[in-house]
Amino acid sequence: MSSESKATKLRARDLVSTAQLIFRHAELTLSRFLPDSELSRLNQKGYIEQSSPLFFECVNAALKMAELTRGIFDPTILDALEHAGYDRSFEQIGTLAPGLATKMNTFRPPSHHYVELNHARRSIQLAKGARIDLGGIAKGMIVDRVAAVIQGQGFKDFMVSAGGDMRLGGNQPGKNGWEVDMQNPITLEGTLTTLSVTEGAVATSSTTRRRWLKGNQLHHHLIDPRTSEPVNNGLAAVTIVAPTTMLADVLAKTALILGLEEGKEFISQQENCRVYMIDQEGRLV
């Protein structure tokens, strides 16, 4: 192996370590399941001043995405999520007794207008009783950050993947661009189609993965803010190809909540985006 190849390998290993640190820092800042995270402190107190740049940027991005999607993507759905049963990390759902949050009968309905930002002080104010969740958009943002670091080090061919959200650059080894297999979300087997992506991101939202029984009803984590209930409109999954991972993640959720026709129409209005929808019969639309 040439000295140049060895140096490239060492740089790549350093980038992997850097990526792990970026993800760990994001988790400590943005996870609602860590009681000492910045997000948990905001939800507990309703106000935070001089928030970290990462936290403020993520909340600000969430509000912008809420405006873009006309409120279909809404970061203030946390009460509705917990009411549906998603009140602990998904690995624990089904293994523990239901938490108190799942027994709430009333809660503040979602509205991104409950969040007020002051950019000069990097302060965040929540309306009384409002709480926010940043799960998907935070994951997308961090994947994009890691991709930017990789590109900044001169690497053109790369893939960053986190829980199904992917940012792709350059070429897959031996391929022209990247090939991404789309799995059947009903059977969790087989490939429905293969996407070809040269530069950009892929994200999928599905009602068939993160789901659980609450009482005798099947629930999942995709909440329609218009009803505060898990969405049920005949779609099983939506995959989006978009310029950034954060945008792809938000648009996948939005299109799934809007449903087949309205979702297709909304995505058609977004620049450089593609949408793939799968119904409850496993058919690719």
UniProtKB/TrEMBL annotation:
What Enzyme Commission number does this protein have?
2.7.1.180
* Keywords on record: FAD, Flavoprotein, Magnesium, Metal-binding, Transferase
Pfam families from the xrefs? ApbE
Q: How is the cofactor bound?
A: Magnesium. Can also use manganese.
What would you give as a GO molecular function for this chain, any one? transferase activity
Q: Which domain of life is it from?
A: Bacteria
Q: Which reaction does it catalyse?
A: L-threonyl-[protein] + FAD = FMN-L-threonyl-[protein] + AMP + H(+)
Does this UniProt record's set of keywords contain Flavoprotein?
A: yes
State whether keyword Flavoprotein applies. Answer: yes
- Entry binding sites for Mg(2+): 136, 249
The record's annotation in InterPro entries points to: ApbE (IPR024932), ApbE-like_sf (IPR003374)
Cofactors required? Mg(2+); Mn(2+)
Q: Where exactly are the transmembrane stretches of this chain?
A: none
State the family named in the UniProt similarity comment for this chain.
Belongs to the ApbE family.
The name under which this protein is listed is FAD:protein FMN transferase
- Annotated source species: Candidatus Chlorohelix allophototropha
